[in-house]
Design brief:
This protein is an alpha+beta fold. Helix content is 51%, strand content 19%.
């Protein structure tokens, strides 16, 4: 009974150490976050530091709680190191994400808030931690990409420069007025408030297709106006083509019917 009371109290105190320690870690991380914000540290570095500090402090709290149960701290650390080595060999790909995260932090190919495309996923960088990064998409999804995959993928950062070029393709029928079609597209681009006037928008013939003459319109916009300008131009060009009698060709299937004349003498 005395033994149960002794170890029961230890277990209770260890639980209290863990819960209080976890609360303290949360408060420390909150203070650290405020200090980093006041110091105007880059958000990417801040995200990494806070996540790393939280992980390390929680490990210390767990060690303290287990030490209170009577486990020798030195032997526990040695045991933890041995277990960690075994886990590291088993999950070496996961822990390589930590090294990849440090490389991302060092080379800084992007920062929090940048619009990027990584491994075919597009969105805004929202977080970087020890093992992965998060991208927030325009439709409200959160894409989590392991740091190792980020390092090994092609990274396209649309936010490094303030402007971005839009290339739109249009097709017109051979029988339609090509010069009029080019003028309509160019005038719409010049009148569009979202499209920059320097560099000057351009419209050129890109190909003579099998069923149509293909045009490409190129114009520059601010990064934040990319999608809006693209959608507005597509809609306005379609309306202008309809009003001017310019048709947009589409694939047509032509079927040929062969009629065989039947001899009336055949039965």
């Amino acid at each position: 009974m005395a033994l149960l009371a002794k170890y029961g109290l230890r277990l209770l105190f260890s639980l209290l150490i863990f819960l209080i320690g976890k609360w303290v870690v949360g408060r420390i991380c909150l203070i650290l976050q405020r200090v980093i914000i006041r110091a105007k540290v880059d958000k990417l570095i801040a995200s990494f530091i806070i996540n790393a500090a939280k992980t390390i402090l929680l490990i210390i709290v767990i060690i303290a709680a287990l030490a209170n149960l009577g486990i020798e701290t030195t032997s526990f650390i040695a045991m933890f190191g041995a277990i960690g080595l075994g886990i590291g060999m088993t999950f070496k790909d996961s822990f390589s994400n930590v090294g990849a995260g440090i490389l991302i932090l060092f080379f800084r190919p992007f920062k929090i808030g940048d619009s990027v495309e990584i491994g075919g996923s597009s969105g805004v960088v929202s977080e970087l931690n020890l093992f992965n990064m998060c991208i927030a998409t325009s439709d409200g999804k959160s894409i989590i990409i392991p740091n190792k995959q980020v390092i090994n993928s092609k990274i396209i950062n649309f936010s490094i420069t303030p402007t971005r070029r839009i290339d739109l393709s249009f097709s017109v029928d051979y029988k339609d007025d090509l010069k009029l079609a080019k003028e309509l597209i160019l005038n719409l681009a010049i009148k569009n408030e979202l499209i920059l006037k320097d560099p000057i928008p351009s419209v050129s013939v890109s190909a003579l297709g099998e069923h149509s003459v293909d045009l490409v319109a190129k114009f520059w916009v601010l990064n934040e106006n990319y999608t809006s300008a693209q959608y507005s131009m597509l809609e306005s060009v379609k309306i202008a083509f309809d009003e001017s009698g310019i048709s947009i060709p589409y694939p047509k299937i032509i079927t040929h019917h062969i009629y065989e004349k039947r001899d009336d003498n055949e039965q």
